[in-house]
Design a protein that fits this description.
Layout (H helix, E strand, L loop, with lengths): L8 E6 L13 H19 L4 E6 L2 H13 L9 H27 L5 E3 L3 E3 L12 E7 L1 H11 L3 E3 L6 E5 L6 E2 L2 H9 L3 E3 L6 E5 L5 E3 L6 H12 L3 E5 L5 E3 L7 E3 L1 E3 H9 L9 H12 L4 E5 L4 H4 L6 E4 L3
Parallel strand pairs: 1-2, 1-12, 2-9, 3-9, 4-10, 12-16, 15-17
Antiparallel strand pairs: 4-8, 5-7, 6-7, 10-11, 13-14, 16-17
Helix pairs in contact: 1-3, 2-3, 6-8, 7-8
Length: 321
């Protein structure tokens, strides 16, 4: 990494499962424990005096809100999906923000943390709106699926062929993050910014200039890539469940990728090494960041991040050399 006197701007993208571990119920205490763990890892970047922008997923949390709404539908008016994304941006941002502030205080570091509810512009003419692909919310019985389709206009499909019925919504790519200048300004002032939670709130622009929320979700990794580009980040870090990107993942021929150029990773992607439902979106996010002029991207897991920022772990992707 550049020397600490250069104070590089780094964007770190985390998944929604960074807040809830496998086997946990998803209580506030579960979220707080996980936030404390990830905050301790992020301190390695703070100790290097990096300017930080943090993004995160929200899949488990939005799923829980959707299930709560189903259970209480007769008593409490349900909220649209864009509002649920905003709610989780605020709640998860608060938990992470508080954990980081406490960690900074313990370490005697005088920096502040701010959470920004983030809107992401999408193109209403994008093909994603004609072919929804993102499953959300609780599983439904056949009768419930038929009711949601007929009475509420939901697109409801079986997940995985013989799987259970679930609602499916569009997942358009981000055009731009509306608050990117505010996020950049706060980060350059030395504040740690939590933004783009859950991929941000998808909005479309009306002819009269108004923004309107969209019933859909934006891929969190692609939003992170777009935001890293727009704020001028020198490094995009994508934290995931495994320490490296692999070729032939899950096969006996599986091999970790260490350092790789943009040209090399694109060739591997064309060979089919990174499936859409697995590492594909993360590799695509790194590729788009590098194509837009980003200097470096890193994909690894939280436990490996301290070693990875010293070049001793993780998958490092670079643009033109």
């Amino acid at each position: 990494m550049p020397g600490s006197n250069e104070r590089p701007l780094v964007l770190v993208a985390m998944g929604g499962h960074a807040f809830v571990q496998k086997g946990e119920r998803g209580t506030v205490e579960d979220h707080e424990r996980s936030a404390t763990r990830i905050s301790e890892v992020l301190m390695h970047l703070i100790e290097r005096d990096c300017r930080l922008v943090l993004t995160h997923g929200n899949g488990p949390q939005v799923g829980a809100l959707l299930e709560q709404q189903e259970l209480a539908r007769e008593e409490v008016p349900p909220m649209p999906l864009d509002v649920l994304v905003a709610m989780t941006e605020g709640s998860l941002g608060y938990i992470l923000q508080q954990s980081l502030l406490n960690q900074l205080h313990r370490q005697g570091v005088r920096r502040w943390v701010v959470t920004m509810v983030t809107q992401v512009l999408v193109d209403e003419d994008d093909p994603a709106f004609q072919e929804p692909t993102k499953f959300i919310g609780p599983a439904l019985s056949g009768a419930e699926a038929e009711h949601k389709r007929d009475r509420m206009g939901w697109d409801v499909r079986r997940q995985g062929g013989d799987g259970q019925w679930r609602r499916v919504v569009p997942s358009p790519p981000p055009v731009k993050v509306l608050q990117h200048q505010m996020i950049r300004d706060a980060a350059l002032e030395g504040h740690i910014v939590v933004a783009g939670g859950g991929g941000g709130i998808p909005v479309r622009a009306e002819a009269d200039g108004r923004f309107v929320g969209v019933e859909g979700v934006v891929d969190k990794d692609l939003t992170s890539s777009a935001l890293a580009r727009d704020v001028g980040a020198e490094l995009l870090v994508i934290l995931t469940a495994v320490p490296n990107v692999y070729t032939d993942f899950g096969k006996s021929s599986q091999r970790p990728i260490g350092a790789v150029t943009l040209e090399e990773i694109e060739a591997l992607r064309e060979e089919g090494h990174f499936p859409p439902g697995s590492m594909g979106p993360k590799v695509q996010a790194a590729i788009e960041f590098l194509r837009a002029g980003g200097r470096r991207a890193l994909i690894t897991d939280p436990a490996s991040l301290p070693a990875a920022i010293r070049g001793r772990a993780g998958t490092h992707l670079v643009g033109e050399i």
